[in-house]
Amino acid sequence: VSHELRTPLTSVVSFAEMLKDPTIGSLTEDQASYLEIIDRNSLRLLRLIEDLLLVAKLESHTLPLSLGLVDLPDIVGQVVTELTPRARDRGVELSVTTASGPPVRGDWVRLQQVVSNLVGNAISYTLPGGSVRVVADVLPDTGHWSIAISDNGVGIPEDEIAHVFDAFFRATSASDAGGSGGPGGTGLGLAISRLIIDEHHGRISVQSPPGVGTTVTVRLPYEDA
Ligand code: ADP
Questions:
Q1: What is the pLDDT of residues 98-130, one digit of tens each?
Q2: Are 152 and 130 in contact (CB under 8 A)?
Q3: What's the average model confidence in pLDDT over 205-220?
Q4: Can you give the pLDDT at residue 181?
Q5: Can you state the percent helix, strand and coil of the chain, rounding each to 5?
Q6: Rounded average pLDDT over 140-151
Q7: What is the CB < 6 Å shell around ligand 1?
Q8: Less packed terminus of the chain by CB within 10 Å, N or C?
Q9: What is the spatial distance between Cα 221 and Cα 200, in angstroms, rounded to a whole number?
Q10: CA 164 to centroid of ligand 1, rounded, Å
Q11: 171 C-alpha vs ligand 1 centroid, how far in Å?
Q12: How many Cα neighbours within 13 Å face the side chain of 186?
């Protein structure tokens, strides 16, 4: 179904794009603003379809993973660099500490997607003046890497934590973050993150003690030397 939806929607997106081309003819102010709404919503729908397709593939274990030796500090560093402007715009302090350690066997792009989604959420659900801290550590006793993303944001009510990895779950606290949580979030970020981490034989968990903020922890097994 996702494939069937994607093709016509891609066409809507590209024809809306063409209408913006001044050589085709100029638009009135109203027309331009309607076009902007078509554009924004069709892109949102396209993102949602892409994410649904990804969930379907992950759930049926048919997503091809491009496995290699992945340096997690490299991913964490890159994600933090990419999201620093967004944190700054929101008035949220973003800091990172990474240990060095053995590589993980995994798909770089997918693991980067997970870390980016979790750090992005932490920024979105933290109010201006708050902070987000990312810590990547090696746990030699268990043979795992741990990546903990902690914020002192709006948190997730205790009785809702069990549902955070459900598709389209939105905590009642999400609106406290002001408007629409993650910019363009599809409500599938955590569901996808968990499925990707499962595919890597890792674990992901969420803690959100009342009044403290949220910590999402990812554990991934590392390759023995
Ligand atoms: P989205 O952010 O697109 O709504 P996600 O699957 O990424 O979807 O997250 C699901 C819900 O979990 C969010 O709507 C929000 O209510 C809650 N959530 C996720 N991360 C955090 C966080 N760091 N702090 C508070 N709430 C969060």
A1: 999 999 999 999 999 999 999 999 999 999 999
A2: yes
A3: 96
A4: 45
A5: 50, 20, 30
A6: 95
A7: 121-122, 125, 151, 153-156, 164, 169-171, 174, 181-182, 185-191, 214
A8: C
A9: 8
A10: 7
A11: 7
A12: 23
